């Protein structure tokens, strides 16, 4: 009797442990379909999935931009991208050129010239290696896109001069564009996140972010119109805005098909943080933006969103890591399930194969470009 009783107690206890584990996983993550949209609701704790890597290790193997004396080789990085053979292209906003490096980080020269003519730029604010393997430079000053070969030879230009103010332009595999267009109405500033055809005719709008005009109000929240967007390798649009930890996925035709959400602990904005952000804002003629800033109590949920080539989703949060100037990256699998966390010093990111490239700032505030070997572990 006693032996049978012990066996039953052991069996019930074992079943209870299994049920608790199942309930624990269910409480961490919830997946449901609302209409045609899959909604993945993640809690604060990563989920350990059988057969799925749960830890990302980043080992630094290259740093570009350090000088032996002081400062950085880069004046102000406005964008960078990586070719299939490992060549690295960095757009320097202040020096108004593109710096080229081979896969070992060796400097291979510059191209680009300030001006108004063909192949010249005024305010180079973005660089992308397009799916057609051309370098695309966004010139906000002349309102045009300039295309070059990977050797820096000028190819052609595409004008968007009919747009009042279009910035942060990306190109997909079909040659369509995604950008942020500025407009004014009734003492409001609007930023429309819109997809355009190759001639910059609007196809559809993803979102509109609005804030009071700085000329009509005395206080401005710098995070009020913050959003981030990317194309994945299928030309789907990944979009998130600053008011919620919610990443939306749209088809190339603009249909919402997936939402990835996560619970998080808000990060307080300290007085030191405010002073550091104000220090980085350039002087603006006609209005003193620095004096008109008002900061919310907490940071937004995230500052950057990007994908690797296997469509893992990475979200750079404002949660500080153990190392100085390091922040936490939340990692999701291709389905949108929260699977891991790691630290990074990156401000912006690019994946190429098993390598993660990051734009970073050292303790003196100078820009550096770093490359890490990425290894997944179970």
Share of residues in helices: 10-25%
Mean pLDDT, to the nearest integer, reads 87
Q: Identify the strand order in the major beta sheet.
A: 1-2-19-18-17-16
What is the radius of gyration?
Answer: 23 Å
Q: How many H/I helical runs?
A: 3
Descriptive overview:
The chain has helices spanning 2-28, 271-280, 289-292, and strands at residues 29-34, 37-42, 55-64, 77-82, 88-92, 97-101, 107-111, 124-129, 135-139, 144-148, 154-159, 166-171, 177-185, 188-196, 202-212, 227-231, 237-241, 246-250, 256-262, 304-307, 313-320, 327-332, 338-344, 346-352, 355-361, 367-377. By secondary structure, the protein is mainly beta. The strands form six sheets. Strands 1-2-19-18-17-16 form a six-stranded mixed β-sheet. It has a four-stranded antiparallel β-sheet with strand order 3-26-25-24, with no helix packed on it. A hairpin with a 5-residue loop joins strand 25 (355-361) and strand 26 (367-377). The protein has three helices and 26 strands.
Brief overview:
By secondary structure, this protein is mainly β.
Descriptors:
globular; 11% helix; six-stranded mixed beta sheet; 26 strands; mainly beta
Strand and helix map with partners:
Blueprint: H1 2-28, E1 29-34, E2 37-42, E3 55-64, E4 77-82, E5 88-92, E6 97-101, E7 107-111, E8 124-129, E9 135-139, E10 144-148, E11 154-159, E12 166-171, E13 177-185, E14 188-196, E15 202-212, E16 227-231, E17 237-241, E18 246-250, E19 256-262, H2 271-280, H3 289-292, E20 304-307, E21 313-320, E22 327-332, E23 338-344, E24 346-352, E25 355-361, E26 367-377
Parallel strand pairs: 2-19
Antiparallel strand pairs: 1-2, 3-26, 4-5, 5-6, 6-7, 8-9, 9-10, 10-11, 12-13, 13-14, 14-15, 16-17, 17-18, 18-19, 20-21, 21-22, 22-23, 24-25, 25-26
């Amino acid at each position: 009797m006693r032996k049978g009783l012990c066996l039953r107690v052991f069996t019930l206890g074992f079943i209870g442990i299994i049920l608790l584990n199942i309930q624990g996983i269910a409480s961490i993550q919830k997946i449901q379909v609302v209409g045609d949209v899959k909604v993945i609701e993640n809690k604060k704790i990563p989920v350990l999935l059988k057969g799925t890597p749960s830890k990302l290790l980043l080992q630094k193997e290259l740093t570009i931009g350090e000088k032996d004396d002081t400062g950085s080789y880069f004046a102000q990085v406005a964008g960078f991208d990586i070719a299939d053979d490992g060549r690295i292209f960095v757009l320097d906003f202040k020096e108004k050129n593109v710096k080229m490096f081979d896969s070992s980080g060796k400097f291979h020269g510059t191209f680009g010239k300030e001006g108004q003519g063909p192949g010249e730029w005024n305010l180079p604010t973005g660089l992308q290696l397009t799916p057609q393997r051309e370098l695309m430079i966004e010139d906000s000053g002349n309102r045009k896109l300039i295309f070059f070969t990977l050797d820096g030879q000028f190819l052609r230009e595409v004008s968007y001069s009919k747009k009042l103010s279009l910035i942060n332009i990306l190109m997909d595999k079909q040659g369509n564009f995604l950008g942020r267009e500025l407009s004014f109405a009734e003492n409001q500033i609007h930023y429309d996140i819109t997809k355009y055809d190759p001639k910059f005719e609007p196809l559809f709008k993803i979102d509109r972010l609005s804030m009071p005009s700085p000329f009509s109000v005395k206080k401005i929240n710098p995070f009020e119109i913050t959003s981030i967007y990317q194309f994945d390798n299928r030309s789907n649009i990944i979009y998130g805005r600053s008011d919620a930890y919610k990443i939306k996925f749209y088809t190339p035709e603009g249909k919402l098909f997936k939402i990835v959400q996560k619970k998080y602990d808000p990060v307080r904005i300290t007085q030191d943080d405010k002073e550091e952000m104000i220090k980085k804002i350039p002087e603006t003629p006609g209005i003193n933006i620095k004096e008109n800033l008002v900061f919310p109590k907490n940071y937004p949920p995230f500052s950057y969103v990007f994908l690797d080539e296997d469509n893992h989703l990475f979200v750079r949060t404002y949660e500080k890591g153990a190392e100085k100037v390091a922040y936490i990256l939340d990692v999701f699998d291709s389905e949108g399930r929260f699977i891991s966390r790691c630290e990074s010093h990156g401000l912006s990111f690019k994946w190429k194969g098993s390598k993660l490239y990051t734009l970073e700032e050292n303790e003196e505030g100078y820009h550096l470009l770093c490359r890490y070997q990425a290894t997944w572990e179970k």
